Amino acid sequence: MRAVLNDAARELAAVSPTPRLDAELLMAHVIGASREQLLLRHLDDPAPPDFDPLLARRRAHEPVAYITGRRAFWTIELAVGPGVLIPRPDSETLIEAAVAHFGAAGPARVLDLGTGPGTLLLAALAQWPGATGLGIDASATALEYARANAEALGLAERATFQLGDWAAGVTERFDLILANPPYIGTDEALPASVADYEPAAALYAGPAGLDAYRVLLPQLSARLAPGGVALVEIGARQSAAVGAIAAEAGLKASILQDLGERDRVLRCDG
């Protein structure tokens, strides 16, 4: 496996910024082990023939998460596949900000708008065992994944999912609102592994990538409980524009940065 992984990493260098990691994740998937187990115990084992077809799929730019059907996020692992946005490490900034705000006590009720495969809601419920929440998405496919993930994680009794258009029709107030809306401009170039595979509705939001914010942000204050907080992911160069939309909606907002010191989260306090 060691030699095969070295060759695979060289082949993937043209299609991925993380070629060695991709090769290791695919190999670990084939042998039914974690990446750590692969590196510690299996590098001198014979390479399985089933690895080559997966490598070919990755060379064609298919995302590793779609090939393996899994993606780690925060403290959980989620099933993902075509039709759902793949969770990104950048989005963990929202959970970090929520932990900083609520501490160990946590929120009682959580709303995740644009939940996808349940990413932010299930991460929050895993963080705070006393919390319950609602996840809303416009995609029936995404909600199928979200419900399956909640069941697999033992969170189904605390998580409800429903089809919807952001918070339209929701009357309850929540202590924590999380959202990762689409924020890519329609003319922006994306890697083939994203543009050719992930759902356009979860990526693009008009020419400047701001259309979802114009709908979403005006809904937040009516849905926030007193002392609550809404955390909304933004593009790294969108803080001024999204901040202006928030101000127009009457929100008390500030910008938080991710670990790379890039603007990443719009924080709105109830």
Plain-language structure description:
The protein is α/β, with parallel strands linked by helices. It contains eleven helices and nine strands. The chain folds into two domains: 2-60, Helicase, Ruva Protein, domain 3 (Orthogonal Bundle); 73-269, Vaccinia Virus protein VP39 (Rossmann fold), CATH 3.40.50. A seven-stranded mixed β-sheet has the order 5-4-3-6-7-9-8, sandwiched between helices. A two-stranded antiparallel ribbon has the order 1-2. The protein is globular.
Keywords:
Helicase, Ruva Protein, domain 3, Rossmann fold, globular, two-stranded antiparallel sheet, 2 domains, 270 residues, alpha/beta, seven-stranded mixed sheet
Task: Itemize the secondary structure elements and their pairings.
Layout: H1 2-12, H2 19-31, H3 35-42, H4 51-59, H5 64-68, E1 70-73, E2 76-79, H6 92-102, E3 109-113, H7 119-127, E4 132-137, H8 140-152, E5 159-163, E6 174-179, H9 192-195, H10 211-223, E7 224-233, H11 239-248, E8 252-257, E9 263-269
Parallel strand pairs: 3-4, 3-6, 4-5, 6-7
Antiparallel strand pairs: 1-2, 7-9, 8-9
Helix pairs in contact: 1-2, 2-3, 2-4, 6-7, 10-11
